[in-house]
Amino acid sequence: MGFRVGQGYDVHRLVEGRRLILGGVEIPFAKGLLGHSDADVLTHAVIDSLLGAAGLGDIGQAFPDSNPYYKNISSLRLLWEVGQYLTKGGWNVENVDATVVAEAPKLLVLRDEMEGNIAASLGIPAYMVNVKFRTEEGLGFTGAGDGMAAHAVCLISERNRQ
Fold this sequence. Notes:
By secondary structure, the chain is of the alpha+beta class. 29% of the residues lie in helices and 31% in strands. It contains five helices and seven strands. Strand 2 (20-22) and strand 3 (25-27) form a beta hairpin. Helix 1 (41-53) runs parallel beside helix 3 (75-88) and helix 3 crosses helix 4. The two termini are 12 Å apart.
């Protein structure tokens, strides 16, 4: 059985007039993330890690912002599609570990819901998904509250082929 590791990263600017969605959870906050889809920086990093592990490029190649179909689409829907690609390609998701970098709002109380949403989109148990939260102690664009970033790592395994 073969194993592959993938790493993902995403960043979006915070702006007024947008909803804040992280891990598929809408969070009451004065600003939201700017992007073509719902701009869910956490889910985007997870998508990139999975695509990378399977050798399928990145989120921009799979879901280009030049395609109007993806305008304001739920990133969990995109993650579900990636899960389907992996399954059809003979891959199992073994685990996902992700970190959201944001100065505010406080997110820890929403962790279980985010992990559950990501796991459900991939068709795996929630214990296989781990989400963490960090601030940057006022440093950089995330520390200044201008945006949010997320990092993700995943492990996928090749199913035995007959």
